[in-house]
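Feature request disguised as a bug report, sorry. It would help if multi-protein outputs had a clear separator. Right now it looks like this:
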Amino acid sequence: MTRPAPPHPPAAGELTFRTHDGTVMRFPARFGRDRELPGPPGRLARAVTLGVDWTVLQYRVPAPCDPRAMNALEREAAAAVALERRYGDARFGEVFTRVVGYDLDAPEPFVLYRIADAEPLATLGGALGVAEQQRILAQLVLAVRLLDAAGFVHRAIDPETVRWDGRHVRLCEPYAALRTGEPREAAGTAPWASPEQRQGTGAADPRDDLWAVAQLMYFLLAGRPDRGAGPPADLADFRGLTALAHGGAFHPAAAGRPAPAELMRLLNAPDPLAASAGGPDPLARGRADHDAQLARKRATLGLGRAPDPVPDPPPRRGTFLQRLLGSTGAPPPPAEPPAPRLGPDPASPERLCPHCLLPVAYDETRLVTIDARGARLPLDLSGEHRPAHVADALRRAYQPCPHADEDQLHELPVPYLTHGRPLSIALVGSSGVGKTHLLAAMLGEVEQGGLEPYGLKCLPLNPDTHRTFLRERVQSLQQGRELGRTGQQTFARFADGLLVSGRGPTRPVVFFDLAGEDLAQDGEVARFLRGVDAFLFVLDPLRALRLASLDPLRALHGLRRRDLGDEAFTTVLNRIPRTAGPYVAAPAALAVNKSDLIRVEPAVDRWLGRSQPPEYRPDEVREESRDAYAFVQRYATAAWLRPFDDCARCTLHFVAATGGEARHDHFPHGVRPRRVLAPLLSLFAMCGLLPGVDEEEVGIR
């Protein structure tokens, strides 16, 4: 017997992707020919037939991936997924090109879209009836309104990118989209792009898209484009543009144009979001819980809003002697207890060894240097009279800790003992959560001057150890190599250190990157944590979040979700003394690391998709903390939020140390850190290092 022939030719390949809700799909696929796309370079398009006859359009970044094209594709995918999740089930969602799926970690990352059967408006200029013109105008303004509610600016509305099928307009794929409020990137040409967008000045604004709508409508009615410098000279000749003209949609500055909702009102167009405000917010409860938790902390610590004044009671007559002596016999009001100090006093002269937590005083008679083989050589500077040589030698010198055992010898860099009060920061998390990569990414940004816009200057605490850390960790990561896990230690040693000058005296800052297994044990490594000044808790989405899109990666790495939280978090928080009422006084930050794995989630993209602002803004930090708290609360158990619950001051951040998944010990698309300085800046702010920032306003207000 012979087998029957297959009903269709064998597929040329296979395509795996995630849908907008995180479902993993796998199809036999046949691929069409590539063609280049308008807009940013570095992308290709082709038709892909999935299964028997489902043809979709694939936009992809070919290997080797251009970093700028990768960033643009990630923004595009985040915008497309956010629009599909928000409006995909609504009839008016047809104004957008609908996303089918995406894979941003594929060797050639891509996004898939449905193919729309419609004609570009470029072919219809001057050939549409009045009723069609009005429907197109109303639907274009609706599309901008929907984008505005989702927090995006499309930035690519022109006759070639908007299609019309006789009933619906359809905006093209959001390949140029930016989050509202992000710095504008120069894009587009006159007259379709607004003057500010063409120049790349200011912040992205939904009224940029309204300018494009106004210019497009003028083209449809006049049959020709305008110059794009302001209102067309013959604008009054077209009655169909009256609402746009009176509303200011042709104004050359965004501030002079109406908001999308206001323009819909001027057009008498129904606004489907007017009653629902865009639909229910799935994170609203979590944000409210975050605010309530902060209010409870402030009340417990005596930092809340002062109570309303209580009216004075009527005067008591008292005895004649009491009146004579000026006393009514009423007891004096009780003195309010002072609010507990949150964190260590930076002016304290005492210096503790960060390893054994015992006091250490600088003693120039005990200095040593360490040669390439690790031998300790005594340093005698009594015969050196050149100040510059002495200063250089001291920068490289160490002082042995007088409390060290023979089995646990350790030394302190001299600058640690000769500057302001040291600040020790410990990264906390189980092995494999990305602490080592995060620390390397942070210090790589610091090395490139990432802290200077915030008024901070950084020097190595010890040039030799810093150079070694840069070579073995930072440079290896920047070259795309995956870093090995931190080895277990019987003793806590810091990974690197900085001398940070900002607000107040220069202070040594030392970072501890410890193996997760060490933190989970009741040994010397865990014991030293009681004296750490600040903590950076690192959360791994693969271990914490109930998201179906993460299940394939969990299976690949042999991981399971942990409803009991991170055991390293628990160990550390159980060991630290509570010196701020029921709370840990040491400042803390909770970093949702590997956020690139969940970057299409709207709450994540809202922060990960934008660059680090050039100044520290406590209000923005609080907004990010609210979003991150609500996101973790919705998709994980309460155990993962213990750092926020147990620490008096704690900020939360979405960060990505590498920007992608490693394959065979390297990162195929390179390493692209995202917002890795955000948690460090918050810790510095809470420890009084950031100029112009009130430390009591961060993490508790």
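(second protein starts here, but nothing in the output says so)
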Amino acid sequence: MDMNQYLEVFIEESKEHLQNVNDQLMLFEKNTDDLGYVNEIFRSAHTLKGMSATMGFDDLAQLTHKMENVLDAVRNHQLDVHTEVLDALFESVDALEIMVQSISEGGDGRLDVKLLVQKLQRIVAEEPVAQHAASSIEYDELVQTLLSQTADQGFNAFEITVQLERTCLLKAARAYMIFDVLEQAGDVIKSAPTVQDIEQEKFESSFIVILVTNESQEKLQASIMEVSEVESVKIAAVPVKKETKMEELVLPEVAAAIQEVTVLEPSKSPVEEKRQPSNNKTIRVNIDRLDSLMNLFEELVIDRGRLEQISKELNNSELDETVERMSRISGDLQTIILNMRMVPVETVYNRFPRMVRQLSKDLGKQIELQIVGADTELDRTVIDEIGDPLVHLLRNAVDHGIEMPQARLKNGKNEKGTIRLKAYHSGNHVFIDLEDDGAGINREKVLQKALDRGIIDGKTAETLTDKQVYELIFASGFSTAEQISDVSGRGVGLDVVKNTIESLGGSVTIDSNEGYGSRFSIQLPLTLSIISALLVQMSEERYALPLSSIIETAIVQPKEVMHVHGQKVIDFRGAIIPLIDLKELFTVPNSVQRDHYSVVIVKKGEKTAGLIVDSFIGQQEIVLKSLGHYLPGVFAISGATILGDGQVALIIDCNALIK
């Protein structure tokens, strides 16, 4: 069988199962008395093991099998949960993620897991042996139901106790031979200890088996006694109730499958929880297909603009009506396609709890990560880029923000610090706030570092507000770390974070209260492919300015323009802002005489500037196209778009114009 056709499904489902294991492990660590989490983890690990074995990824299958042993011991109360157990399971998940990532990148998914396998085996080997020597077996509801069904069909049920000789050296081998005899005679439905534990010799010298068979007690006794080193065999008939309920015949594996296709009624309270079949239908779609769909729709948007332009020129009522209807329908289609590309920020957040757990452990700190609004959605192109900046901010909060437990207690705080990650929609933007209750930012320390690095001079330092001082940490190469660590403080600073976010058309601001904590607020556009823009004219050329960067437009008279150090400035609502003549900046031939200035007021974080153009054309939705490899790094130009009349308009990067 050609497994390549199933590879993509395997990779996606493996990632989902690993994420579930990750999430459930984090929850189980907080409440180790709730074995429901362990059952969830076991189910995902078991499924992953089966898929890996089928696909031929032996290292994956081997490691998940050893994880199963540990999880099985935990859920059967045979192993106490402690830090070493949890750390080994988390370490196993890390290794599994590495292997799955290797497979997704075209590798063979192989990894040396010998040491990790030995660690898991050592943990299971430490579980108490005495509890496996019990001479009784539990007849739970499922076993009773199965026995009742087999009795209805005329089978016998026996409880068989096998005692091996005390001198038996190869207990697991003898047990295997006995099980072989029993399975030829009927079906083994339960054993104590479990079959897995018997295979690993986790019993003293006896074990119990429930067997359903047509054979007689005498024949079974004789067959088992033929196996070497068997001291004695006791066989007793199991009394069986004849009444049966069909709904009790659901095996755990079937129940698990049923649970995966059920949903909780939203109208029910937690006390009244009932699961009903879900009518939701989903299908996996390769992201490349969505990208192709988006590209085709972008072409449709361009043609729509062209038709609207022609309709205006011809002034034909029937054409106007048709174009208006097409515009409305294509607008609805645009909404649907954009929504299809929306991905919850949860896909980025998923790795953060594990990361914070490990970092806090490495640093000897106690930190709780609170996540709010994980279902907030962003375009996939934004999601792909936002992960690394958030990782950097989180590591910064863990290392620089949250204090050591002793220091927190000394300052009257809870020894456990809190980092809160919140996402929410507002208008056409998504905001992500990262807040900690740590030490906050030391204003004087930041100011002194900036002076030492030559980022600002002494005269400027005297005029800066607290907020302006905090923003200095975004300067290139800025760092307040006393020493380089593996977590942060490598001298890279947060300038990479700021640059990445601004390249996405977003912004980041800081607020801090020394001694009480800090908050980083990130503003991002919902999508990057199709944006609303203001078209402006400069001589014979047209340019587009993203509406997300625009505060307002204004007409400024020449007498209102002032000059400060050779720079044109205006008084805009009580603040002095610089003017940038785009015609001069882009060396556009000057063919229009101005008797006034048409100004577009744009922002970049807390900073603003006025861009001088010849005239405003109007607002329009445009398709953002890259300039390609032939025109890389053109200053203040983020791309281009094709207008309704077929002409190309360059899209101005307002962030690059504001220093």
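Even a blank line would do. Unrelated, but nice: The longest strand covers residues 416-426.
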